[in-house]
């Protein structure tokens, strides 16, 4: 999977000193980390404020075999005149890109953004990439309400995007552990991930947790 983000000289939309490139870099890197936490390989076209052209983004993707290409953006129109989220696929896009786009769109609308729908467009990164591709506009950078949502629900946006992506590739989302390795004499708080009547189901969950980097063990309780 690959994530594409504006940056460098391509700052994208700008409103009152706020840059699209900064917003989507912050969100994109966090989403990539959250997806990686579940054992999914993610490459990023940009991890700093560097310029990566459209041709470089599509060429980067086409050099490898990726399952999906996801491009994060923020919209702009006429200040305070438009709002909401929309997700794009290429013209007559395939079933995989449409399914991913719908998952992402639904997850963001659930956080309070106005639903502008899943749409089709002849954008370079949708047209020139081999993998099923989507382009996500996470609200309008020139709309105060959308910026407030973007800022106040940043963590929820990251989680919603990660869950949508993971669901599309068939991986269950696992809440991050709140426990840390204690020093001698400290109290350790363990987090339970679930209870199962079937030993087989319990063992499957332990395997998923361990694959995601969590300490996991089966504990038996009798009612």
Give a written overview of the molecule.
The protein is built from 7 helices and 8 strands, in the order E-E-E-H-E-H-E-E-H-E-H-E-H-H-H. The chain has 223 residues and is α/β, with parallel strands linked by helices. The strands form 2 sheets. A 6-stranded mixed β-sheet has the order 4-1-5-8-6-7. It has a two-stranded antiparallel sheet with strand order 2-3. It is globular, with a radius of gyration of 20 Å.
Note the topology:
Layout: E1 2-5, E2 14-15, E3 18-19, H1 20-36, E4 43-44, H2 54-62, E5 69-75, E6 85-90, H3 95-109, E7 115-121, H4 124-127, E8 133-140, H5 144-152, H6 154-168, H7 199-211
Parallel strand pairs: 1-4, 1-5, 5-8, 6-7
Antiparallel strand pairs: 2-3, 6-8
List keywords for this structure.
single chain; 223 residues; two-stranded antiparallel sheet; globular; 8 strands; alpha/beta
The low-confidence parts are 5-9
What share of residues is helical? 25-40%
Rough outline: globular
Order of helices and strands: EEEHEHEEHEHEHHH
Specify the number of helices: 7
**Average pLDDT rating:** 83
How far apart are the first and last residues' alpha carbons, in Å? 44 Å
Radius of gyration: 20 Å
* Order of strands, widest sheet: 4-1-5-8-6-7
Main sheet summary:
6 strands, mixed
Strand residue percentage: 15-25%
Précis, in short:
The protein is of the alpha/beta class and 223 residues long. It has helices at residues 20-36, 54-62, 95-109, 124-127, 144-152, 154-168, 199-211; strands at residues 2-5, 14-15, 18-19, 43-44, 69-75, 85-90, 115-121, 133-140. The N and C termini lie far apart (44 Å).
